[in-house]
Design brief:
mainly alpha, globular
Length: 122
């Protein structure tokens, strides 16, 4: 029975660490972009509207600025492609629902950021 209690304590500690990580990611997103991850996702789920004059989307495939995509992955814009892939995979291990994560919005944002970087060019 002692093993079960220790395992539950380990799971509680891991859950606390993951929640703290989600909080850090949200705070970083807000600091860098002025928007929370939830706000980003809400914007991306809206149907496209007309842009104000002078705000074209040339070079912004998913509507996400490239610098924001790098920030979401925790990288600088000059990060090499290997680092982009590595950071994406590590974060996906944390946020993917198949890994027991309960934050689908974070995974959606992560996917969009990765797609923006890999398909959008520098």
């Amino acid at each position: 029975m002692a093993k079960r209690g220790a395992r539950n304590k380990d799971l509680d500690n891991l859950s606390g660490l993951l929640n703290a990580y989600v909080d850090i990611v949200n705070a970083t997103s807000e600091r860098l972009t002025g928007k929370s991850i939830a706000a980003w996702l809400k914007e991306f789920q809206q149907p496209p509207g007309e842009l104000p004059p002078g705000e074209g989307t040339a070079g912004q495939q998913s509507g996400m600025p490239l610098a924001d995509a790098y920030a979401i992955l925790g990288l600088k814009p000059d990060a090499p492609p290997e680092d982009v892939k590595k950071h994406y995979r590590n974060l996906a291990k944390v946020f993917h629902s198949d890994k027991g994560a309960m934050n689908d919005e974070a995974m959606k944002l992560l996917n969009r950021a990765y797609e923006r970087i890999t398909k959008g060019g520098k």
